[in-house]
Specification:
heterodimer; A: 168 residues; alpha+beta; Arc Repressor Mutant, subunit A; Glutaredoxin; four-stranded mixed beta sheet; 4 strands; elongated; B: 620 residues; alpha/beta; Rossmann fold; Ubiquitin-like (UB roll); five-stranded mixed beta sheet
């Protein structure tokens, strides 16, 4: 199975991979955000060991500073995300046009509680974002970079059904 | 100052670029902005390419070229396909429609009427986009090329006078004259603050001599605004040119564009544009043979609203947490990496080449006494035509919402418009004829902000809207200043209490007191403006707050806790379906007799509402 929400399966951190990433960004302090983005792309979250490693390898940084930056920005996740990353836009335009019923429909469908990031089977992660800039198509949902426009509770159920079917 | 002789002739480059475009034959423009891509633009492009492969069938052209463009602005009607030579724009085009356009119109010469825009009032089909009300009432300056050129082809930008302003500026070789022109034009920062751009340039230029930077703020964090995204996606070269002119004026040789990570397409197109511009020596070392060198880097944000604040943005580029720093020192003196830095937003910089080409007087003629030029607004919410618009400063809300926006969706009644996002406020019916410019909006208790206009109708609850924005600012507060960090949290708590029907009248005084404390005790714009949505809804919609607190009712029928689910006894047939559906056993009654809901048990999940085959269950 996928790593998913099962935290007992620790992600294997490859220091070789981390060195490669650090190399691309010249081990530079000012590139820390870009480095963390790359690491997250690799592991689908920021493993603690990776942050500690980066914090000790870059001059002028400490693991604590790295953790500080990682927790500051909404994009970074300290727990594994699902294979399908669902982002429900809850910007003003989407909110006014009913993004909350869509979010609730997803929670219901995937059996997820409020505040739960990743579904039990590790397949889906769910979060709200403040604006994706596709306000003309509100409400929108983005799943792994694909934008689904003008969503309703029924429409998102169809989308999720299709994804679930693909996974079977 | 002596003129510089440059090693290229921009007029010659333009001529060549225009000839290249002529060689494309019949140009079919397909909008490939984020909105239209979501509606299937890539499939439409593919289909056109398949059909157009056999060019021998075209009678009046020897070739057809499909041009993917940036955002047209009319996102609601996407996918937009326009064929300038045939004077037509098609709306809501899908994959299956392409063949008909191709066969009937491109080959057959007869327009496909069913795919034309239909005026909602007159029901007439409209051929040209300039005749559609949505476009007709606009004057596009910063957005002029968006949707009309291939954003990924530098030749298309050159053909519409891209880099001509930079050429002129470098040839003239007089940085102070550039600053003077920008000052005279009256351009003010389009990102929210409205600070005079020319003055900002002059402050930074005072530190000429050492290393300095130009930073473009593309961290469009305001929910409900997407003009910067559209410019970066639709006309990236205009932004690069604007930055290069700014850098020349203030004596910088390095620039950064800080783009939100939520805008992957903008990042991709900017990267390509930078590469192409460098290849033509419009960026890089000794640009066009002059002494001026300028390189641009892209920095991706990582999701923090506060990074739109300039000192926080600087911290973020330096790789730190995006926390604002006290001013002074201003970035103009001590900014990025401790060096003098000019920070302007995307739309501001996109106006620069246009001003340099057409002159300060041309720009200053548009707009009002204190707010010159045009402003883009992202028109969204409960309005018929949502999308991106650009109008002269001073245009009234009525013109924007009813003429351009086509009125309120579904014939509902207009209630308010939220302007300026979480930092702004709301405007009501009484403000419909207010000229939209920096100063009149401030007077009305709102602000232009970045230009997000979210239209709200009678069924929007203003208390809930205030709660929504407070939740946003609470989440985005960086935590540096205690009044902002704790104040927004407690304001949110009070608002949550009110929408749950547990509010007390004294809460309203407490809200105002907290609002004052947060405003006065915060370092940056986020905290200083965070209470605005609460204050302005309190000012104009106090009756709604009171209805929630005293009558325990939500007049708009939005707040769940204040809703009552009831059974209409006249419609109820006693089928028992609702009673069986109810998860908490709150519905009582005997078969074939009208049922009723025990309000003490009801959890307002509305499950019964959906289950009733006779629509007998109502929300009150």
């Amino acid at each position: 199975m996928l790593g998913g929400a099962d935290m007992s399966i620790a992600t294997k951190i490859s220091t070789k991979k981390l060195d490669e990433i650090l190399q691309i960004y010249d081990y530079k302090k000012s590139n820390l955000i870009a480095i963390l983005q790359k690491v997250q792309e690799e592991y689908r979250y920021l493993p603690e060991e990776a942050m500690i490693y980066i914090g000790t390898k870059i001059e002028g940084l400490s693991p604590a500073t790295v953790l500080g930056v990682a927790t500051f920005y909404a994009q970074f996740s300290l727990e594994p995300k699902g294979k399908f990353e669902i982002k429900v836009c809850d910007g003003t335009a989407c909110h006014v046009r009913g993004s909350m019923p869509v979010l609730n429909a997803i929670r219901q469908k995937l059996n997820m509680k409020e505040g739960q990031l990743t579904s039990e089977n590790g397949l889906f992660s769910l979060e709200t974002v403040s604006c994706l800039g596709a306000c003309g198509l509100a409400p929108v949902v983005v799943i792994n970079e694909k934008v689904y426009p003008q969503m309703t509770s029924d429409a998102i159920n169809i989308v999720l059904d299709t994804l679930l079917k693909e996974e079977e | 100052m002596e003129k510089t002789s440059l090693n290229i002739d921009i007029k010659e480059e333009q001529k060549q670029a225009r000839e290249e475009i002529k060689k494309q034959g019949l140009r079919v423009l397909v909008c490939a902005g984020t909105g239209c891509v979501a509606n299937g633009a890539l499939g439409v492009i593919e289909r056109f390419k398949e059909l157009g492969a056999d060019v021998s069938v075209l009678s009046d052209y020897d070739k057809m070229t499909i041009v993917p463009t940036g955002c047209h602005g009319f996102c609601e009607q996407g996918v937009l396909v326009s064929i300038p030579d045939k004077h037509v724009t098609y709306v809501k085009v899908r994959y299956k429609d392409v063949e008909e356009i191709y066969e009937t119109h491109i080959r057959g010469g007869k327009p496909v009427e069913r795919l034309l825009y239909t005026d909602p009032q007159t029901k007439e089909h409209i051929f040209k986009d300039e005749d559609i009300n949505f476009y007709a009432k606009q004057s596009r300056t910063a957005l002029k090329n968006c949707g009309n050129i291939n954003a990924e082809d530098i030749d298309e930008a050159i053909a519409v006078r891209g880099y001509e302003a930079l050429y002129n500026v470098l040839e003239e070789n007089n940085p102070d004259a550039v600053i003077e022109t920008i000052e005279k034009s009256g351009l003010r920062g389009r990102g929210g603050g409205g600070f005079p751009t020319g003055r900002k340039w002059r402050f930074t230029a005072a530190n000429r001599g050492g290393k300095s930077y130009v930073v473009c703020n593309g961290d469009e964090g305001d929910p409900g605004a997407f003009m910067d995204r559209s410019i970066m996606e639709g006309d990236p070269h205009k932004l690069l040119e604007g930055m290069a002119i700014a850098a020349f004026a203030i004596g910088a040789d390095e620039g950064y564009i800080y783009v939100r990570a939520e805008y992957p397409l903008a990042i991709k197109r900017l990267k390509k544009a930078i590469k192409d511009a460098e290849a033509r020596n419009f960026l890089g070392k000794n640009i066009m043979g002059s002494d001026f060198s300028f390189t641009i880097h892209i920095k991706e944000g990582a999701g923090a609203f506060v990074c739109g604040e300039e000192t926080a943005l600087i911290a973020s580029i330096e790789g730190e947490r995006g926390m604002p720093r006290p001013k002074p020192p201003f970035p103009a003196n001590k900014g990025l990496f401790g060096r003098p830095t000019l920070i302007n937003n995307v739309e501001t910089l996109a106006n620069v080449p246009v001003i340099m080409l057409n002159g300060a007087d041309w720009f200053a003629k548009m707009g009002t006494e204190t707010s010159k030029g045009t402003k883009t607004f992202a028109l969204t919410g409960e309005v018929n035509n949502t999308g991106l618009i650009e109008v002269p400063m001073g245009t009234t809300l009525r013109q924007i919402i009813f003429d351009i926006g086509g009125g309120i969706r579904g014939g509902k009644k207009f209630k308010a418009v939220q302007i300026g996002g979480p930092s702004g406020g709301c405007l009501t019916e009484e403000h419909l004829d207010l000229p939209m410019d920096y100063d009149s909006l401030i007077k009305a208790g709102a602000m232009v902000g970045s230009g997000g206009l979210v239209v709200m109708a009678e069924d929007t609850c203003m208390v809930e809207v205030a709660r929504f924005f407070m939740n946003f600012t609470k989440n985005e507060s960086c935590g540096k200043c205690v009044p902002c960090r704790e104040g927004t949290k407690n304001m949110l708590k009070i608002l949550e209490k009110i929408v749950q029907g547990k509010g007390e009248l004294s809460d309203l005084d407490l809200l105002e007191e907290l609002a004052r404390t947060v405003k006065e005790g915060s370092l940056c714009g986020l905290g200083k403006t965070a209470p605005n949505p609460v204050l302005s809804t309190l000012k104009y919609f106090k009756d709604e707050y009171i209805a929630h607190i005293v009558d325990k009712k939500c007049p708009a029928g939005v707040c769940t806790a204040l809703k009552t689910v009831v059974i209409n006894e006249e419609k109820c047939k006693g089928c028992t379906k609702c009673a069986r559906t109810c998860p908490v056993g709150a519905i009582e009654g005997t078969v074939k007799q009208p049922h009723h809901i025990n309000q003490d048990k009801c959890i307002k999940c509305e499950a019964c509402l959906k289950s009733c085959p006779f629509k007998a269950i109502e929300l009150k």
